[in-house]
Amino acid sequence: MSAEGLWTRCNSCGRILYKQDILDNLSVCPSCDFHFRLTAEERLAQLCDGGSYETLDDSIRPVDRLHFEDTQPYSRRIQDSQKKTGLADAVVNARGTIDGLPVILSVMDFRFMGGSMGSVVGEKIARAAERALEERLPLVIVSCSGGARMQEGVLSLMQLAKTSAALARLDRAGLPCLSVLADPTTGGTTASFAMLGDVNVAEPNALIGFAGPRVIEQTIREKLPKGFQRSEFLLKHGMLDDVVTRRALRDFLIRALRLFLNRPR
Predict the structure, then answer these.
(1) pLDDT band at 81 (very low <50, low <70, confident <90, very high)
(2) 113 lies in the same domain as 146
(3) Whole-prediction pTM
(4) Domain that holds residue 32
């Protein structure tokens, strides 16, 4: 790797940082605590015991049913994202353990078309909930998404109802769903499964909402409060259960899982 490739700039404080120092700090800026985005693989490795997990539903792949085209065909966008990320779509399902407790996980990856929710994402979230129900296991969802995938039109919007219904069945069975919201979690993702956990927590300063702040300001013609739609603002106004730093997230999930499962240490 070249010397130039060893360094990066923090998106928040602007400091030039040694990349390895960021990685050693769970991809959090050691200067200002800015939380860099994680890949699904990185997130799963951080949460699961020993970084080990088994991926599920890998064979499900998106299809361009509407033959949608904007500046380029949707089919080409899919191929480009798959090549760039090595993923089939914007979410990875997995089975793993957290502090020895078996769990099903669904983790989104923003690199794949902005983590947008199309038919495959909705199907995989629903399958994760169904598998958790079948195996009587807790479900952990980590969201990082720009919302519904516009290239799939109404097929994407149908996933809001589909994922919500799957989580409702899990809830009726008394099985916990822990939802973690990373930056950003917006649009149809927020309007469905991301906010339907038994516990909803977010990483610091994550953008969370349905419409973006600029759209809202233009619609209501008013200036929004400082920090509007950020994690801390939502926590203050009762929309989240907690804001948890990445360093504390695994321990938080362990405590929550043991509480829901009535398995004290």
Answers:
(1) very high
(2) yes
(3) 0.95
(4) 1-36
